[in-house]
């Protein structure tokens, strides 16, 4: 923009237009840190509003990634006020007896990976942003424009906006990813079926006692169950099986056929402890089908200074406690790179030079790790995280 007076001419560079696609923890963390550094940003999300749908289960934010991002966002103390350190307790149960084998009880003051409800984390991040930052009801259809140039964002409602940098924080089925890579997520062969239990201490006291204040898991080598406590007296259980992605349809049912699906599960888990089988059968409401997908390993792309990715859009992996943490660390590093470099191109290149090797290493570590959840051997290093 050029401003002319009677004596001088001053040229001011136009404001950088940054568009984040996706108002999940990664996208919101990126926006928060950018705003802390005085950089304008707009977030677009397909949900009609912040309360349009259930936000999923509980998350453990790790000291060496997710908490680093919250510190850069200036929200770490607020996080600890909301978090549940007791949620770090982990029980591994015998599938046939229901008895506790491995048992981790966190020490007083342990803060390595306290739990927080995904919805509470999202509310914390949303409340930290400048009013009007998030544009709701914006489903992205395509990203158009030449490599290196400004991009036109085409939304389902007919809106078209222009951005100098498009940040894809839009998850497993990312639309932004298509502007950089032809890769699509592949089914891992392992599927989660989510079940909910409300007011668990009063309505499901035996299950509440079985799971405890944190999480509990059991497996027999072919199938598993992972249950975790959320705030407000809620429990969520994830029934984990090695099955075709369409196993419910192949049996002639839909996931809404709760009684029929329940009968299938009880038959598949017929040799399990009666106490554990109640995690399959006593749920409140229908199940949620969550076949587990992952991106090819490694997933990389040709550098484009106008488009980049973070979180699941960049490196979708099985939900083993690292996804949200890496997304938030990605977001923090990208925002800081944009604040510290003179050009967007330099910032994106610096960010991807760190993020891509790190995510490739983690992808390789977790490639096939969903199968490990079915093992009856004690395992604590990776545990399922709350699905969205």
Description:
This protein is an alpha/beta fold. Helix content is 30%, strand content 23%. It has 12 helices and 19 strands. It has helices at 25-36, 66-72, 76-82, 118-127, 200-203, 205-211, 247-250, 258-268, 274-281, 312-315, 323-340, 344-366, and strands at residues 2-4, 9-11, 18-21, 42-44, 58-60, 90-94, 100-104, 115-117, 134-135, 140-144, 151-155, 160-163, 165-168, 186-197, 215-219, 223-229, 235-242, 288-294, 307-309. It has a 7-stranded mixed β-sheet, covered by helices on one side. A 5-stranded parallel β-sheet has the order 9-4-3-13-19. α1 runs parallel beside α11.
Gist?
The protein is an alpha/beta fold. It has 12 helices and 19 strands. Helix 1 (25-36) runs parallel beside helix 4, helix 1 packs parallel to helix 11 and helix 11 packs antiparallel against helix 12 (344-366).
